């Protein structure tokens, strides 16, 4: 995965750290855990989506297992969450921003990697979304919560927008660092607007409250 | 997967649609979801079992990612469930029938594909069952319910019967469309009898109620 | 996987049986299940960790699907748990010992297999832990419990110690049956001390009780 342009690669590492930190904090809020549980869930959040993608596109062993900084950043983020749990719990907005960076970068990188491994455009876009939301979904399932992505504020939708923009750009030979950053920025802005204005995807008509 | 005989292929697509619809309805009954959650869970129900099978037999990327009608039918079924949720909730029997068709066809196709990829007969039969029940199991785990397959009416057993019949027929060079349909029909009948007479697999002796 | 030395192979089969038995009993304690559910969860507990490892190191189809005694022992263990549920529930200590044997052997074999498939030392150690605890984690997620490994007594840590000893021995060309048994014994002893003295991994500072 370090064949990405350096800036994108740096953002990918930032996203890994942010997901490790945020994943661990979310897990700590949901249930009692010891340090093993916190680190495990931080790693699953940060690395799970990319591992699922690599399994499905047959890029095995997963990139995560071949390049140690991913592990180090995911574990580091989780350990910081473990130690500074109390204090970080109050810092909602910076954590949401970091998480949105991870979401945006993972969607773009995941979609472009899937295309590079020969997937079609629609499946590649889906794999971008899986990269972005897969890890958090596993974490929520393990701590016994209905995954956030299934029920609240815009989360999968901005990832899907970024992934679709990415595969379209690749289709029309326009993909490069500016497009990748642009697609990630669109995802980031939609996500932050969703958080700011508590936007939700539509609910079923007549659903009981 | 479109190397199957046309009738079986049509049933496979029917099963995909039925699982997408039914999976989304089941998820809606279990928890609050937005449209992203409903479509995600419909897709996971319809496509999850086949994806797990393709990962385990090393048929990657999974067939689902290579042939768009699977996606379209799974998403279409889930969207119909989302819009017509209230009204479809009353139509229990047609949905159970559609679901039983999916179960039957997935078990037969899953087992035969596993044999085609070189698996032994017993593992191939197991992979047939995994194809049939894997998607629903993931859905139930994500919405926080003990998977139906683990605790109620005959569900995995008819799938196992169909998968075993399939691998035996392949072993004795008797596999073809008639046998495939016959094996699926046996599964379908056992499943519907199970629903009709509320048959359950045996419970542990002395288990507390 | 039957390229392991005979004694290690025998322990691997013992561990598979123990995990099948223990996994089924744990599942029965957590929720109501029929015989299909008990056997399914016993199999997932016994075989799930190894299957995840084989998927991630691209050793497909998984060893479990190629060599029937694994299936037979996992299913046999689960069926014994199903029939003797009441009676076995009282035998806490022998079951804990059997489970610790499985944990120890799976960690060592998992790590050594990952190295044999070309993984680096740190990822291989992680895959040893995944082999040892993956199956139980899936089982707990399916029956709606926060996985034991995430929150109680030393469980992942002894597996990690054994896996690290294994990869270090391989690194320094000292791996063989004595080292494998030694690493497994270290894991076993730490695990049993953890059970005996109710040791837990550290909790987050200031966490609410």
Short description:
Chain A has one domain.
Whole-number total of structural domains of chain A: 1
Element pattern of chain A in H and E: HHHHHHHHH
What is the share of helical residues of chain A? over 70%
How many angstroms does the end-to-end distance of chain A come to? 44 Å
Keywords:
Gly_transporter (chains A, B, C), homotrimer, 9 helices, mainly alpha, transmembrane helix (chains A, B, C), membrane (chains A, B, C), cell membrane (chains A, B, C), transmembrane (chains A, B, C), globular
Structure overview:
Three copies of one chain form a homotrimer. By secondary structure, chain A is an all-alpha fold. The first copy, chain A, has one domain. Helices cover 74% and strands 0% of the residues of chain A. In chain A, helix 1 crosses helix 2 (35-56), helix 1 packs across helix 6 and helix 2 runs antiparallel to helix 4 (68-83).
